[in-house]
Records
---
Amino acid sequence: MRRVWAVAVNTVRQALRMKVAIIFIVLLLVLLPVMGLTATGDGTLKGRLQTFISYGLSLTSLLLCLLTVIVSTHAITSDIEQRTIYTVATKPIRRHQLILGKLLGVIVLDVGLLVLFGGIVYGVTVLLPGFLDVSPEERQQIDYEFYTARASLVPPEIDVHDEVMALYQRLVDKDQLRQVYPTLPQSEIIKELTARKRLEKRAAAVGDALMWEFQGVKPRGNDETLFIRFKYDVAENPPDGQVYGRWQIGDLRPLRDGTEMKTPIWPEDRKDPVRTFREIRVPADVVAEDGYLSVAFLNPALNRTVVLFPVEDGLEVLYKADTFTANFIRAALLILCRLVFLAALGVLAASFLSFPVAILFCLVIFFTGTVSGFILESFDYLGQGLGLFYAYTVKALVQLLPRFDKYNPTTFLVPARLMSWAFLGWVVLTMVCVKAFLLLVLGLIIFSFRELAKVIV
Amino acid sequence: MDYAIETISLTKIFSDWWGRAKVYAVDDLNLQIKQNEVFGLLGPNGSGKTTTIKMLLGLLHPTKGHALLLGGQGSDPKINARVGFLPEESYLYRFLNARETLDFYGRLFGLAPDVRRMRIEALLEMVGLKAVARRPVGTYSKGMARRIGLAQALINDPDLLILDEPTTGLDPIGTRQIKDLILKLAERGKTILLCSHLLADVEDVCDRIAILYGGRVQAEGRVGDLLREADKRQFVTSAVSDQAVGKIKEILSDEGAECDVTTPMERLETFFINTVVEARQQARPTSGAVSTTDIGDFLTAEKSQAGILDKLVSSSESTEAPAAAAPELSEVAPVETTAPQPDKDLLGELTRPAATSETEQVRRPEKPVPDLPQAQVDVPVEDGRVKKRVLDALTGSNPEQPDQPPAQDEPEQDGESSDA
């Protein structure tokens, strides 16, 4: 272990005395504070903070990822290319210890830099309002909607299978199926009908009401605040692009059952632009003792159109579940997971490739990883007809890609969403314990059995 | 068993991309190097010397056959712990300075911190890099890199030392130093594999040699046996008259032997070192301020050489070395206490701006160093005495054999550490 540590220290030293690490560090040290001053977002303080944290963290993550790839591959390939490996590998240290030492060094460096730059981003984010002229309302808004970590509940999916099948049958019976869908196969038609039915369940005609019920709403205290985050869509655009809405939020069961009301109901009439996320702030004491909450929306006659709530993100309940700081720390740890993965990837690449090729290899994987959702989908789509062969070869490989886009810290911090420990644990498990570990083991095996000296005759 | 190095039909074939055999770098090599032998592996460029060493150390996999180091595999850490290796060039981390380099390798050997620190200082002094120990190794000249490379090979006090072209890039004095070191280490029971095409070096130190060509051993045996011309005799006399020579010739012709009379030549190496010493002594009165990098390197090197050598030579069981060292210590002790400190400072100051190669500065002794403080200019007088002694000791021309102060405390400490 002491030897592994000696190699690790040496690797950190090498990275710091290599100009490239310094360039990255200086770049970040300059850019982060500048961004804090120049980021404006949509003009509001909240928008400004969101822009800063989004760009700041993304930039930190991107540059540290690049740095990790460069340092981890360089640490190993330079030893081989400059032949320092001759003097190192002939010392009483096993090759896997050597590689683990390098990896450890890269991770130590990453942790150090992440603490530094994460600290800067955090510091600027938290201190920025102090330098600005902030009205109490704005202060309250950012406290509720930015400096927090909110858990999210989405309405449970409504089972529409029976209805869809009935509809399908009706179309078949009436012999209209081929008129409506001339070319699609049956499965696609069902899919389409399901989507339509689901949307129907979330559409309110003029004068109609919609109600969603949530279980297990657990705000941290009764003096906390709940948020109903929603987005309108409309069948026909209103002239001013605004939609009226009459909301009732609270425990509506007594109204239905005719029992006594124990908790208040929060009514709110408002006018909001379409296709934009808006949030209704509600005191947490509207939640029933058992964590029940219902949200009702009435489409008033002032609107002349059907109002829809898109299925994916049309409506959710947000409530404070943790602090901004804790969420930020988890976000930084999420970035660390990426870096560990990339370090292991770099080690693997360097175990059999030379410096520029190894870096290229890692960068390809990295950028593929940042659009992995798209790639997975397209492979799934293209590979549908390929069957077993596809499922066990290409698909398995594609599954090994890191999911950098899905596990992106800014998608949590910008809307102040809770990143749960469970989520982080899952990322650690898949990205570090499984994927990075596999890469590392492969790299160790290759490195342990290869010839370290060059062929010189 | 009991060979320090043994190869059994060791073969390395380099093949091309298609797996077709291209070159037999080493071909069916059978070497047996005994413990405590200084073995020279000779051969022209590309004869397979370095490839053999790389296979011994596990850096290359043999195509066929086996290579055993100290009875085990060269990739085994237990074996590595007892081996010191200096590759054909000093492949070191360019961004580390000399002290950090040695510290790093010391850590790889798992040396305890106090042992490590002590050995680093001793080795730095020995190889004469103490004054430049804070400079990154990447800025070193080839000779300096070679010195630090040698130091890293010695940090574990190895039982087996593998030196690949140890003297390339070194000035004659450094070369001589390495050769002396090899001999001292051999005295102490170490095994040394020396790989070189500089024949003079090999001839001076090796017990046995093998000459490789085309990956095969072409000749092998004791140096004396191989080189002795058994059908000839040689006399060396002091200057005698032509008359006497004539008489001798007569006697010889009676026996029917042929005779060739010449004046023997001094060895260039000895001549060079003597010349350098004289030049330095003469230069001193004319311009007292001269003190250059190489003096520093060289001086510290010599002084400390004794230090480390004694340290290395006087293993705990040896009774001879401490006894030999004791009187010398008392003799030179005052010099040690007065001179070296300021001298080193001076050197340090000179080294930083100059940073040029050693020999260059030797040839410009008149170069003035105007802005040196007076106190420091005084030093070299004492300094010169030490240097002369040291040189004499080195070249063996001074019968007194004055020895070098740092030996004073180091042998004991190291004895303890190597015991532990």
---
Amino acid sequence: MLKGSVGLIALGSLLLSGTAFAQEKIKVGVTATLEGTYTVLGEDGIRGFQTALNTLGKKVGDKELEFVIASTDATPDSAVRAVRKLIEQDKVQILLSPLSGDEGIAVKNFAKTHPELTFINAASGAQETTYVDPAPNFFRYNMDGAQWQVGLGKYAYETKGYRKIATVGEDYSFIYTQVFGLVLEFCGAGGQVTNRQWVPLGTKDFASVIAALPDDVDAIYLGLGGADAVNFLNQYQQAGGKAHLMGGSIMIDQTILSSKGSAKNALIGTIAASGQADTWEDPAWQKFVKAYQDSFPPNKRFPSPSLLATNYYGSTMALILGLRQVNGDLSNNQAKLKEALAKIELDAPNGKIKLDSNRQAIGTNFVTEVVDDGKGALFSKVVKVIPNVNQTLGYDPAVFAKIGLPSRTVPECKKY
Amino acid sequence: MTRFIERHPAWALIAIIAVAVLIWLVFAIWPPGLEQAIGRKRVFLNAVFNGITLGGLYFLVASGFTLIFGLMRNVNLAHGSLYLFGGYIGYAISAWTGSWILSFIVAFIAAALVGVILQIVVFRRMEGQDLRQTMVTIGLSIVFADLMLWVFGGDFYQIPTPSWLIGPVQMPLVTAVKSSGEPVYLQYPLVRLAIFAASCVIGIAMWLALNRTRIGMIVRAGVDDRDILAATGVRIQLVFVLVFALGAGLAGIAGVVGGTFQSLSPGEDTRFLLASLVVVIVGGMGSIPGAALGAVIIGLAEQLGSVYIPTYAIVVTFLIMVLVLALRPQGLLARR
């Protein structure tokens, strides 16, 4: 009896304290590829997200942000399933999603069925997501795959003297977009792309792909990521490959450069381009790297944040700053927040970012070269910094529209 | 063999012609017209070799699977977990001691021990209840996958290839003739050849053990009729444990092999479980030669597919499975 009444009082006081300190919460859903080929990318994305929370805090006025994380595997259906679960079961009001290219296109289309909610792209980089029929409630604070290749084609042609290259890439929208950016610039400068090989996402055995690489080219461009890239490099080393390499934005990235084993050494000297460079001197970048390093013990992170960590950091930052500008006001279908997000100018670690009329980022791009720091760790070193890269890559929008959408064969290798 | 030719003369003729064409493709110097039509000979030869060596790896995983099924009628859907577990153990040992060979031994023992525990704790309790076993092993494979994700994280691990196996070797096969008349020989990764040779040795040893030793005789008798065998006084449970340990150990070894020439990461367990299911379905459940044939067919299909029809490469494997299920549902080499 006594026991029972004590329990009742305890329960009562718990409920009371609950109402007394009740605080309004804003629920945000986050997705990342925590399964499959891109697991490592997703994990580092989440690290970037947590670094942003550590730096900026979770408070918006008197409201507290609450996050629910869901896992995907880089396929569009897994992303839509995760986003739908977050909205319908967890009742989130804002989404920070997704990570990968095909996921981005699917989530953007899904966003149209929930016009009242706000979607902030976490890291995906397919061109189509914001270029074709963009969703008014979908905001992307990172550049797309083609923007991330700006500068690489010219550098390869003019400085490295490559005239003929071949490409190997994963068969999906983000890598199409990357190859699109590369081919446009490299062929525009006068180079030739003789062969484009596409492998399914999640390929394990690359031996035949490696055997089919042409030998009469100056360099081979690798548009691979995650486990695929590591497998490729391992088997490339076993086959005794010696060609000059060029890399895409998730190939020359800490997710690959700090993988275990010696196969990654094939990448030393490889030129690449991306939305960041590991050794950039800029104080804001260095501060971000420090914040990332301080947030996790050394064996639970990479030596330096990957592109995914940077993107998640940037999009989380945009979300929190946007919410603070409107003081957490989500009334009227989040109209104020959407307005604020569209106008925000972000002092992201990887340069200033602002959005165009499609709510797509205009930002800074980096041409890099892989160097060994002398202790066996590999980093991407800045070669060139290119500010204000927009989605049409500096082309006149009408000309750009004629090129067509990135695919296995688009664009043709010619000057547009 | 002769019986097959007598019964199906047309099929036999087609098979002989196919083999002859294949031999010609491998050994002859290709005329320029053929190179133009289907690409360089180097690419073709590489794809064939890769298919066969990949088949070697599939055989290692699938042989344990099929052996366990053949004797105990257990569909062990946690077999892929044993593969990944062996791989991780092999990685830990090779990182710790630097010895590649030692990692095989330890991975074999560790996976075999897990197999023994599985057999004693799980399968013995539900003998003959196929559905329960299947459900329990699916559950276990999910639990194992999460445990391994917890311990090893989502990172990719590669077991370093020993330095004496890195790099290519020259094979005595001419891929092309330079304009100066000098022949160009095929370069092929040594480690893949070594792994293929090792899986051949293991396959032959298993065949010999099954067909030429007393233990093998008992196992074969058990495959045919467990109850009669038990009635003759053989300690059938001990045989079960031994076979389960061997099958699991082979999966563990395969994990080290897979970790050396591909990589280890979460999700590899289901990939190899699926591969060994397909191999065993194509080759015939419970048959070791069937597993070997199935493994080579699936390996070749994957590799030739990835070179010549890259977009549809994934479909080819399953197409073969569908064809086999439609035309010869018991598998290519299964006994009736």
---
Amino acid sequence: MDQLLQQIINGISLGSIYALIALGYTMVYGIIKLINFAHCDVYMIGAYIGFVCITSLKLGLIPALLIAMAICTILGVLIERIAYRPLRNATRIAVLITAIGVSLLLENGMILIASPQVRVYPQIDGLLAKSFDIGRITINMKQVLILATTIILMILLQFIVKRTRIGKAMRAVSLDTEAAQLMGINVDTTISFTFAIGSALAGAAGVLVGVYYNSINPLMGLLPGLKAFVAAVFGGIGIIPGAMLGGYFIGMVETMVAGYGGSMFRDAVVFAILIFILIVKPTGLLGKNVREKV
Amino acid sequence: MTLLKINKLTKSFGGLTAVANVNMEINKGELVGLIGPNGAGKTTVFNLLTGVYRPTHGTITLADGSQEIALEGLKPHKICSKGLARTFQNIRLFKELTVLDNVRIAMHKNVAYGLLSGFLHLPSFKREEDRLVEESLRLLEIFDLADKKDELAKNLPYGEQRHLEIARALATKPKLLLLDEPAAGMNPAETMRLSEIIKRIREKFDLTILLIEHDMSLVMKICERIYVLDFGMVIAKGTPEEVKTNEQVIKAYLGEGVEDA
Amino acid sequence: MKKILKAKGFKMLTALVLTYIIIQVLVSTNIINDYMQATLVTIFINIILAVSLNLITGFTGQFSLGHAGFMSIGAYTCALITARIPTTWGFILGVLAAAIVASIAGYLVGLPTLRLRGDYLAIATLGMSEIIRIIFINMDDITNGAAGLLTKRFVNWTWLFIFTVITVYFISNFLKSTHGRACISIREDETASEAVGINTTKYKVMAFTIGSFFAGIAGALYASYFYVIKPDIFNFNKSVNILVIVVFGGLGSLSGSVVSAIVLALVSSFLQAFSDVQMILYSLLLIIIMIFKPGGLLGSRELSIAMLGDWRAFIGEKFKALRSRKEKKTTAKEDLDNDPVENK
């Protein structure tokens, strides 16, 4: 029982990271129907920016987090602007290949700049180094930090999407791009904004992962990126609460499988769940069935 | 003799009942029209008949010699192989393929060579392929499309695309042909020609035809019997004359409370 | 008609024999050295992979991101057999077994997942190939885990040439048969395809199974030439590389896949000189090509003599400054004709 609770707590931390990344996938897919393969590398770059801020610039964690989010925002918007926008009317497979190209570019660019070796995030002293026990369960402050940051960001996201003009525009464009355009919504701006928000969340996830697991490398985005995408599909792609739900579910499953002796197969289990969900309910847990008109 | 019998056919999408308790009978050799205002459920009936949708309730039975075949719940390609072929309201040709290929593909289920011959291009392959081309051209001839066999379907003018779709449906060798608004978007001259063609293929291939149409002149001119659908229900049936004068039909088309307006 | 067909086949055969002789001469005079021979072999393997994936994605319209998974099944099957029967006959048996096992896997994977469409199918096939890779990593006793298997070289480039020609010949024949046309009709319009009596599920699975069959052969050839195989060779990036070849050559163009496999291999061996920035240049090139030519080199057309003529006229137009106005007009038209995808 204690072990189960402990795994749940670990699962929530990992799930928070997946959820933050998955949100970026799901929003971008919802709005331009693109699996943005470069998204996981934005997350990786966020982790590196955090690393530079904390080690070289001797900044605190919160400023590092904010700077990483800001730079990732710019990066995300630039990627959309330069690589995806010229292909707005091309086949989806062409855009997808472009996205893969951008992903390779970011990964190899980072390998060139920072070398392929693993970097170790500095241990943070003070409050964050502490942990406390409840019964036989240990909760450390990093886990609290991750959960708190994630919750704050998600509330902020919900606010933006539900309560602001630009949020309304995002929802409109994802429902029907042409109709939204006819209603006077600037589609390009809205898409840029979607990339901005998604990338900011990915940047935050990058820094949090650095703090939690301590090590980062240029290819760190690949697998979490895939799993976050699985999370987005699991919850119903294009649906924001679905991505959160999916992120926590995948995080939880992964820690459970690893915690109970299946660590070699934890990735396989995640993909098996993906395929199962796709076959049983292709539109995801919260998705609605859309019928093709004949 | 009844070829197709539809009994209490119902289809609901969530809370919306698109087709409710529809009963229809189509005799062999008949040319029957299915009309009704927009959104009455005509195309849904076609989609149910051809297996695109599964009926919520009801049965669809096709007579095959002395046998009766239940069509409901079968997949579209199975239904096609039982002898039902259709065209689509919003033309669905294989756009990037040639006119000839469009027709040849529809002959697929009657091709008599196997996979191995397909890989190795054995003599049976050549024999069958020659036959396919020959039969396709004969079919295209009827629609004056034979000399356009190598053009891409998407490059044909609109009227010819509609013709090609009918030719493609005929290539499956159907007993019952379902035409979904074949005259939509055609001018009077083209509609005239279409009605000629429908008559001709009906005789030539010993066909039974059910057609949905908005163009009343066409329906009244060529159909022998008409079913009128409104809000998913059959509100009238009979000869064109009977239907024309039916009060409920007039009401459905013109709406109630005309005098208030 | 018959005579022309025969003549065409004869021309093709002559061209192939000539190609073989030229390469053979270059190899025996050592103008193509060992290193370049490896590139040559890679080209052949990539042609087989690209052509078979093109059948699935380009012709049948089913977006797969898991082709490397089936390649790995072929590679391991063949390596395990040649480890026990280390002869040429063992190799031939290995290739056959590889193709069959891979196609069975393709069938089993395809049956449930091919109900999905577009991106969903892509992700499902990606997931499947990752699962296959993880299974290979964890089957220590048989596959030696992440370290992989070491066999020895059983084939020279001639074998690869033969298998490549056979693959392209079979797939090209298949696409010209009624079964192939059924597959293509699914790409064009699945609903219409069902409506004219084509069992679309059957043909999707068939395309997938045949594609996996040849991917298995490619894997077997890889194992028998490069003799080191490990699960990480067949990862997501490998699947992506194959897809890039297909898209770059043109979805739905077999000759496009062949040309593209050759061009991309030459480009990447050229980039090897800049080893530091090799991958950066490659990815930049990928992005730029996609932005300026999203339909690939050939769109969905096949290479033909007439087209070469068009291109020559087009290139001539670009580089020769002095031309009469009339000629300019005609070439501009041909230029448009060359890009059906972009004009859509």
---
Amino acid sequence: MAKTDKRVPMNHVIGFVLSLVMTLVAAWAVIGSNLSTTWVIIFIMILALLQAGVQLFMFMHITEAESKNGHVPWNMMFHGFALAAILVAGSLFTMSFGFDHGEHGNHGGEGEQHEQMDSEEHSSH
Amino acid sequence: MAAEELKTGPLEYRTQEGRMTILGFWIFLGAEVVLFATLFATYAVLFGRTADAPSPMELFEPGTVLVMTFLLLTSSFTCGLAVHEMRRGNKKGLTLWMAVTLALGLGFLGFEIYEFVHYVHEGASLPSSAYWSSFFVLAGTHGLHVTLGIGWATLLLIQISRRGLTNVTSRKFFIISLYWHFLDVIWIFIFTCVYMIGMVI
């Protein structure tokens, strides 16, 4: 089937509407909702992953029998995504875990003593 | 290779060479995922380290960001329509939808440039803090990809207008459509991780 006769590709339209809705829901969660910060972040990250899925599966022809499914190197794509996750999570874990740079940004990386003092300060409040 | 040429199916998949080139482009996209992952990791680690520069919360405007997102999402959709028209053998339809895609891409770039100029005027530029360095490098790398994509697609449209839809031009166009959708995938994460999270923390 070289030429599809459908004038409008429905899966593209559905994907487009889905991505618009997910963008608006994410914006609403950030601007309009009363959810706690943690839940907002978890919620919009899930939406982002779903939207990436919409692009990959509905727009990018990632599954397509016409190429005998030989056009996507699944192992390498998986490798890419796994590396991306390790890079981001690993960097955050090694550089920022247990380190509150929001309020105490000037302490630099001076180590446990400061953190201990900080937590004592917090508990005495 | 030509001996293996298929008689049916989308033009871009008919030769072994076409299928392998598309496979190779997916490998490139896998490498792009890792490139952007390093920039996202840098951004995440440097988040909050704004020094004396304004914080992202003060500068980010939900309106501008949403307009940029909708421009890019729509351009991804029209790019998909262009590939659909290509597979129907409709060169005019392909050119029309790709022209719309490029116009939307240019609109996106315009907003991004406006946004960057605005931030610099407010005192948040590349050298003003670790946070803003990582922000401009991350968003700027994406913007550079969009710019390159616009130039690439323009040249390809000229080639298609001269040579028509062949195995080779179809394969080239299919590949740039993958590139364009991929830029949208990256933007979704910039939208979420940079702008949306920057507005809640």
